Amino acid sequence: MDVTQWLLESDPSIRWQVMHDLQDEPAEAVATERSRVATEGWGARLLTLQDADGYWGGDEYGRDRKSVTWTLHSLRRLGVDPTDPRVRSAVSRVRENVLWRDWGDLPYFHGEVEECVNGGVIALAAYFGELGAGSDRMIGMLLDQQLDDGGWNCEPIEESRHSSFDSTLCVLEGFLAYEQALGHAPEAVTDARRRGEEYLLERSLFRRRSTGELILARYADFAFPPYWFYDVLRALDYFRSIGARPDPRIADAVDLLTSKRTDDGRWLAGTPHGGDVFFALDAPAGEPSPWNTLRALRVLRWYEGADGRAG
């Protein structure tokens, strides 16, 4: 089957990323398609579900996925245009009204205390144009919270001095988005990000350093949206987004990714992470997944690109 054509028959959020990441379409055509995310399909539906007080689902974070944090992350992953007036209005309502009520009523874009949460909020602030004093606060905390092995862990330090893949990738995504939004960053941020990347690379993105075994089965189960959960596809897509040549230590992770391609050239949806949602953004588990297929194809295009594999 023509996998690209199949992807283009999906939501605008899929189509514009296919045009940009797989087809190298002209910037004007990509921007036109991207503009539809705020007015059609999943992105438009999420925007209309915001309450007048700026909240989604009445919660800033929440165990379910009907909250400010997870809705903004979904909009970011859909690639909604952050300059669209509808998006700016929604983000303004968050900035002006949403508070971390369990953390001293800090404004939303000032974050709270946990590494995985703050890494995500920095990524959101960078994407939606909300970097400022709150971001500086979170960056300072995260620099102090980096562990000796190079990563981060949301578990209390007295319980674990070893990093978590989940927490580490959340922080790395935030740091990278921060650097890319600014066009530059303090050297300490870049150094911390690279140390965090080394933590993952030294473990081939999914293996125990001591035995070489798969750390957790869910690392090989690709679900979209990923929320705070780590998996190999999310990690590979992160390293692609850096814009550098592939590190040779990701080869095993790429082999794992390609092993999951079906005979018709697509990837299947993973097991959804728990929590109530407004509506599903991907196919049911075990069915062909537009999101996994798109992300896998752009990772492979980067890995097997014109420069060849890194050596």
From TrEMBL:
InterPro entries assigned = Terpenoid_cyclase/PrenylTrfase (IPR008930)
Q: Which domain of life is it from?
A: Bacteria
Protein name from the UniProt record: Squalene cyclase
This chain's source organism reads Orlajensenia flava
